[in-house]
From TrEMBL:
<keyword id="KW-0812">Transmembrane</keyword>
<dbReference type="Pfam" id="PF02397">
    <property type="entry name" value="Bac_transf"/>
</dbReference>
<keyword id="KW-1133">Transmembrane helix</keyword>
<feature type="transmembrane region" description="Helical">
    <location>
        <begin position="67"/>
        <end position="85"/>
    </location>
</feature>
<keyword id="KW-0808">Transferase</keyword>
<feature type="transmembrane region" description="Helical">
    <location>
        <begin position="29"/>
        <end position="47"/>
    </location>
</feature>
<dbReference type="Pfam" id="PF13727">
    <property type="entry name" value="CoA_binding_3"/>
</dbReference>
<keyword id="KW-0472">Membrane</keyword>
<feature type="transmembrane region" description="Helical">
    <location>
        <begin position="91"/>
        <end position="111"/>
    </location>
</feature>
<comment type="similarity">
    <text>Belongs to the bacterial sugar transferase family.</text>
</comment>
<dbReference type="GO" id="GO:0016020">
    <property type="term" value="C:membrane"/>
</dbReference>
<protein>
    <submittedName>
        <fullName>Polyprenyl glycosylphosphotransferase</fullName>
    </submittedName>
</protein>
<dbReference type="GO" id="GO:0016780">
    <property type="term" value="F:phosphotransferase activity, for other substituted phosphate groups"/>
</dbReference>
<feature type="transmembrane region" description="Helical">
    <location>
        <begin position="253"/>
        <end position="276"/>
    </location>
</feature>
<dbReference type="InterPro" id="IPR003362">
    <property type="entry name" value="Bact_transf"/>
</dbReference>
<dbReference type="InterPro" id="IPR017475">
    <property type="entry name" value="EPS_sugar_tfrase"/>
</dbReference>
<feature type="domain" description="Bacterial sugar transferase">
    <location>
        <begin position="250"/>
        <end position="438"/>
    </location>
</feature>
Length: 445
């Protein structure tokens, strides 16, 4: 309903604006064109299944479907203009469609935020019964509990009985007791294919659903394809890679965005530099050797936020709080931070000089945070995959909990980013970073 309202208002508003700008009259032909465009657009959104409960609130995939529907409508209008030329065509393509698409994105973003807030409270979520045993159930349960905004609320667990023939009745009784509407089978190794089919047959079509959780995690949707073969629902997982085209795209975005931000924020950089200089003795910039792409060392820049000689005090402070053996070295209530530095860190202003690191190619706007050699020396083999991409000013784990996350969680999020990179994900993380800076919690490292 809200999609129809947004599309209708924007198409008519765009057409009215176009006719006024060109001096044309808003006649019956223009009105008819608006009606046709609205009908085509709503049909396209429906065919792309953008209003399905599985799509609404899904973020990037939801927006991608909306974009595909919009592009098809634009193509139809452009082709029809060849055979039926009219001034309304230009108005539709130049004003109404861009205005409508932007409004649809804002409307869906607002719905998504509302839906996420409701799901965090336990509402508007799929009530899930997990079927399985041991580690597979714990893994899926923990993952779903960690992401309540995904819309899956675990309400019960059913351990398969020793008597395989009693599985369906056990699942049905567990669903009834927990008021579950979806069954997720967390591991099928111990279940015969016929038993899984029997579970699906026992579910009420359209109201109850069956899902299978394979033994893979942290794989983004675009890397997963279902490939049925000989009646087998095979899952094809693309090998993680950042090809030449993707690398050039990321680097081009970094250069353009960092140059623009340096120009835009130059007054802020000057003011912060002056405050740092006046607040305490020492240089304005702090340079520290960090480990970057493929293990190369580079000087990372920051506005100095600590007193001079702070590095020499680090080992003693970490030993005092008992965290010196983890790669994610973080001192709580750090006494070395100056008063100005505390404000800079709260709003992440101390990180701004790293825009020059991005411009010279040693860093990226988004990526795993660079660490010192002593921390990298403690990396496990999986953690070393963080070095496969350029380190970033911000990253996925910074906007997913910032310094509240432990090392294992941080590594997992960084590896997810490295193996599932896309330009859309970079833009999304940057937008979330702006939100985190405006509403700061713990400072990022």
């Amino acid at each position: 309903m809200s999609d129809a309202l947004v599309v209708t208002v924007c198409v008519f508003a765009g057409m009215v604006a176009w006719t006024r700008a060109t001096g044309a009259a808003m006649d019956a032909a223009h009105t008819a064109a608006c009606v046709v465009v609205i009908a085509l657009w709503m049909l396209g959104l429906s065919l792309e299944d953008t209003r399905s409960h599985r799509v609404t609130g899904a973020g990037a995939s939801e927006f991608r479907r909306m974009w595909q529907a919009t592009i098809v409508v634009v193509a139809i209008i452009a082709i029809s203009a060849v055979f039926f030329p009219h001034s309304s065509t230009k108005g539709t393509i130049a004003v109404a469609m861009p205005l409508g698409f932007a409004a649809l994105l804002l409307e869906r973003a607002a719905w998504r935020e509302w839906l996420k807030s409701q799901r965090r409270k336990g509402g508007w979520s799929t009530r899930v019964l997990l079927v399985g045993s041991g580690e597979s159930v714990r893994t899926i349960h923990d993952e779903l509990e960690r992401a309540p905004a995904a819309g899956f609320r675990v309400v019960g667990v059913c351990k398969p009985p020793e008597d395989a023939s009693a599985l369906v009745s056990a699942v049905r009784s567990s669903m009834a007791a927990a008021s579950a509407d979806t069954v997720i089978v967390t591991g099928t190794d111990g279940l015969e294919p016929d038993r899984v089919k029997e579970i699906s047959w026992s579910l009420e079509p359209g109201r109850e659903h069956l899902m299978l959780a394979p033994n893979i995690t942290d794989i983004a949707g675009p890397r997963i394809r279902t490939r049925p073969a000989a009646g087998l629902p095979l899952i094809h997982v693309e090998t993680p890679r950042l090809g030449r085209t993707a690398s050039l795209t990321k680097r081009g975005f970094d250069i353009a965005a960092s140059a623009a931000l340096i120009a835009l924020l130059s007054p802020v950089l000057a003011v912060v530099a002056l405050l740092v200089k006046l607040s305490s003795p020492g240089p304005v910039l702090y340079r520290q050797e960090r480990i970057g792409h493929l293990g190369e060392t580079f000087p990372m820049l920051k506005f100095r936020s600590m007193r001079q000689g702070a590095d020499a005090e680090l080992a003693a402070l970490l030993e005092e709080q008992g965290t010196g053996t983890e790669p994610l070295f973080k001192v709580k209530n750090d006494p070395r931070i100056t008063r100005v530095g505390r404000v800079l860190r709260k709003y992440s202003l101390d990180e701004l000089p790293q825009l020059f690191n991005v411009l010279d190619g040693t860093m990226s706007l988004v990526g795993p945070r660079p660490q010192i050699a002593e921390e990298v020396a403690l990396y496990s083999k999986p953690a070393r995959r963080r070095l496969l991409t350029r380190p970033g000013i911000t990253g996925l784990w910074q906007v997913s909990g910032r310094s509240a996350l432990d090392w294992d969680q941080a590594v997992r999020l960084d590896l997810y980013y490295v193996e599932n990179w896309s330009l859309i994900s970079d833009i999304h993380i940057l937008l979330r970073t702006v939100k985190a800076v405006v509403l700061p919690g713990d400072s990022a490292s």
